Fold this sequence. Notes:
8 helices; Type I interferon f2; 184 residues; mainly alpha; Growth Hormone, Chain: A; cytokine; 0% strand; signal
Amino acid sequence: MATLNVSFVVHLLCVIVLYPVVYAKCSDQKEQMYNLSQTRQTLNDLAMERRPRGCIPEAEMIMVQRPTLSKEEVEKVWTLRLAFQLASELFQQNLTLVKWNSIKLRDLQDLLARQYMTYSECVRDMRLRQNLPIGDMVKNYFKQLDDFLSRESFSLCSWEVVRTEMGSILRDFYKKSKMPRKHV
Length: 184
């Protein structure tokens, strides 16, 4: 086990030396924060109302276990890559019943896809392992959202509930990604 950890550290150091631009982009907390913030804002902009009254029964039916974002950079990058991949796939599904602004929806889809590609590049270049324990939690979370949408026949209300839920997890990711503030 110690050999594996040493080789991983050596490999990670090589990645930092050989791929400094990619590593800098992947570990740039300001860019991560900006992208998370933009995605969250775009998701919120889709809302027709703060909390559609007719969707309360659907909102009460959804029960999902949210994954948490690791403090370790390697796991955080992997989690974000997987989350943006699955979110991108989710928001490409049956959207015929939603009444969202089509331009804002396209912006959201583009943001999700762009972040997925960015983190995919990080994962590929850092040669991260795909069997991190958080992976199953992230996959299960998005499967629960997908199952909920399917059960509710991709109704307007089910999409509003999922949109709100996605906003919550992005807020959690944003808070976990925040740089510690320096006290002066």
